Amino acid sequence: MQYNYRNVTLRSGFWKQMEELNSKVTINAVYDRFYETGRIDAFKFEWKEGEEKQPHFFWDSDVAKWMEGAAYVLSREDRPDLEEKIESLIDDIEKNQCEDGYFNIYFTVVKPEARWSCRNWHELYCAGHLMEAACAYYDVTGRDRFLNIMEKYADYIEKVFVKEHSAAFTTPGHEEIELALYRMYKTTGKKKFFELCRFFLENRGLPDNTEEDILDSPYYAQNHLPIREQKEAFGHSVRAVYLYSGMADLALESGDEKLKEACIALFDNITQKKMYITGGIGSAYRGETFTVAYDLPNASAYAETCASIGLMFFAQRMMALDPENAAKYADAIELEMYNGMLSGVSLDGDKFFYENPLEIYLTDRHRLDMLNYSERWPITQRPKVFGCSCCPPNIVRLLSSLGNYMYSFDEKSGEVYINQFADSVYEKDGARVEVSTNYPYDSTLKIKTNVPVRVRIPEWCHGFGTNKEHTVKSSYACFEAGEFELKLTMNPELVASSVNVVRNLGKAALRYGPMIYCAEAVDNADGVHKLYLDPEKIADANISYSEELGREVIDCEGYLRVDEKTDKLYAPYSRKFEPRIVRLIPYHCFANRGESDMVVYLNVK
Amino acid sequence: MQYNYRNVTLRSGFWKQMEELNSKVTINAVYDRFYETGRIDAFKFEWKEGEEKQPHFFWDSDVAKWMEGAAYVLSREDRPDLEEKIESLIDDIEKNQCEDGYFNIYFTVVKPEARWSCRNWHELYCAGHLMEAACAYYDVTGRDRFLNIMEKYADYIEKVFVKEHSAAFTTPGHEEIELALYRMYKTTGKKKFFELCRFFLENRGLPDNTEEDILDSPYYAQNHLPIREQKEAFGHSVRAVYLYSGMADLALESGDEKLKEACIALFDNITQKKMYITGGIGSAYRGETFTVAYDLPNASAYAETCASIGLMFFAQRMMALDPENAAKYADAIELEMYNGMLSGVSLDGDKFFYENPLEIYLTDRHRLDMLNYSERWPITQRPKVFGCSCCPPNIVRLLSSLGNYMYSFDEKSGEVYINQFADSVYEKDGARVEVSTNYPYDSTLKIKTNVPVRVRIPEWCHGFGTNKEHTVKSSYACFEAGEFELKLTMNPELVASSVNVVRNLGKAALRYGPMIYCAEAVDNADGVHKLYLDPEKIADANISYSEELGREVIDCEGYLRVDEKTDKLYAPYSRKFEPRIVRLIPYHCFANRGESDMVVYLNVK
After folding, report:
1. Has residue A219 been placed in a domain?
2. Which of A228, A348, B36, B97 is 20 to 30 A from A9, alpha carbon to alpha carbon?
3. Each residue of B564-593: pLDDT tens digit?
């Protein structure tokens, strides 16, 4: 099951707009913020003790992710500005790489004595992101200068960790090197990188390595068990899904069935026990972690943007590893694309969320301000840059490689899988598939293909119609080559979480096609917490295009719950409602019009 | 409006049992724990630097409250053991009082250089509790040794704060001295103590005193405004209600209408905006504070036992200050007596809650344990003593002076108010009122009185019957002298909070007479969070006596909400219920049978 964004051309519609917003606004904004904060100049290695803008140990990775994203843009656009910036950074990296192959800003100019001394200080994570950037740039430009630098670095890492065991730890605190090394292997064809990837994966969770536990918890960095025994997602959610992505790579390459089983179990555990309805994962701020099954508080949801992106990486690999269940993985990717990942960036493209809560209740904030206490809640507005600014460049590289997720090619059957829907063309080795659609605003797909295709029937879709003969296999509609239409049934629908998520009992979210909707106070005069939806009136909801948001919004007949006696704090139970029109907007659009109360889950009458 | 526990004799039933449990178990247990922790021996002033059991700056007050409670017991029982302990403590206090009149363990043996240096270090609070104990002991025994010591101390305080202004602060961080000085005035008849009381009250919140703000917030210790301008309850809830009690004393004594208005506004603000359905107040752990209106989270409810007791003190004074609305205040007292205050002590009398949450969900705890992070929740089981053990001796003094709350005497009309219901006799100056009842298990009151009486019709009661002529004034049924019966209509009923408490929408609590009920997992096989009550079936609830709890429990026909597909985290909204009998127990009985999930608010179908 192969995929490559370079085989895909987006032509118009939702994702083409996002791709353009990214290349015209987001990528420049992220670079500018990184420049202003000193991240770019840090690569010159000129920082001196006492100066401002002291490099942080994760800065290499922030910029590396930006470079990777910029490389993807170069595959489609003539962008000398981006090329010059990348080349200038590579100049710096080349100049400042140590003799032995090591490259890290912080551990050269700030704390050179601490090289490889602390598992949690992101050295291997930074190395991994630089490697991914080097592979991407080589793929697009054919220029191997950056890749060579990174090969030398990888060789040095092998020396330190495998041959000499001279680092103070065996496996990284923040996973990333694993999937980066696998990519180095796929890019260079050099098996040694795969072996090094395997080394880091196989050593994780071995009893010998427990002395390195971070925050006193072996769960935090998935160090509680060897990889084949990990069946429940634990710990820092970004680390987790990066690890699981690496595990899936290893399972695919090695054909290891036990590892494949672990990957499937982990994916199912995340999506059926620990994932928000928006796709957000990692519910706890403390440790940015997965917690226990069904623990999904809305207002304090951490749900880091990077974790949603990481789940897309993991799901994409699972499609290749477990192709019989490809639809399940593509469903998760679609959920992230339109919701959990996308809420990470503002509609104007230059502001970002790290955390993506499912509820904002400003009363709680008022309380804190007034009392001068610092309780901890997700912020309510997207800033332009963070101190720990991992999410913005992750958005950049994701939105510049969207084609990866749209199509995949099954080399065994010769079929092209249409996994995500966009007005686009897939071309590879003579195969050509053309999808014309205004999805998600119209769920009709016009397909013209010279090879057999499979079209995913999304989990949210309760039926479809087509004018061409087909079979349905594992949630894909399978067609021979030809020209035809397929229309997915798409109506607004109330969706509820399992009763085990006890906080959401009596509540539901509105889903319309791939998008989860939310209600913001800015659209609803009485606030959003006392609004009720009526299941029997959802079918009559009014869908309209909002110029303000550039998205479709939904108006439902609903209710406001009111008190019998407004001056009483407690009174005999009553059900008193006043009719209200409830306006809902796509979740990813929240917080684009000022600070406002927001709920994804609304009360149900 | 006069009240005095010494005019009241409890004969049998609920409160007689509590009074006996207190004098047989609780008062001994609290003394023993205080002895073991060094609080008793600390009064010998023999602690030396480096030794264990270093006195804390609030230890004086812990023991003083115990002494006050013990004094009340002596009014009814021949208890040489308690008398000896009190006298021994007075010996120590007498011996260790400074020449100038000062008495404080911590600021003599631990940090003598810091006397009167820090507003938040409870010196005046400790002094106040010692004064209250001295007044109580004098009232009961007529012995004035302790009272004389405290008079000397009060004179010294006046010298430091009023004459010399030599302390680093003007008003106390933790209020208590105010109502203690008023009591000293009432006990000794010496006006100077009233003037000193007035001094501390009138100086609070003046612009000059803001430099002393605690935790950088003027709200924390009610220092944000002068007392007459305080209309909304803010800050540390125990401090707040002690202050408001002192304000009510001053308003009554001075006839100050503006101050009376402030007291009424504060009381209404607490009970109609910031009080749990159990009577708990002060919802936030951080600062143990009142927050904003309707911010009443259940699982993290702080709702300190001392704050419930303090609200009883405040309400009791408000009955005297605002007698036209006496029923409102007596309602609040009843709510605390059977719920918020009473949950502070275990059924066996020797274990205590400081915090009284309205929900326990052990999933949250599991999460913390596993991940080795310290998130903060109220504890789930009552321990025998706390590091800051203010609540246990507060329970002791409250349960040994219950008569204060049962009856009051209106000196203007000559009527006796029957405010709370217990099998008891009120006797004063020839007036004799006898109430025979098994309340709250039977809501019939048999009353025999030789003076006119008023019987409170509780707010929870929707009607009553009687065999005697009467009028109803301001929620009191008014009778002439005679012998008659009165039966309050009492049925289980669902009660909801205002829709502004958005977390409770769709939920309700069961109330039966004066008691709020809760559901514990130990009684309900499927846990308690997914249970639903049916408003139409509450009338048919089965009420029975539980030997295990020694209380009446209630079984309602209800439901368990279940998923259509148990393996799915998200699915189209459905309403699937299975019938269940839901067992409810009085809230104050929770956590007496091991750690268990608990809810006060249940879902309503």
Report:
1. no
2. A348
3. 988 899 999 999 999 999 999 999 999 999
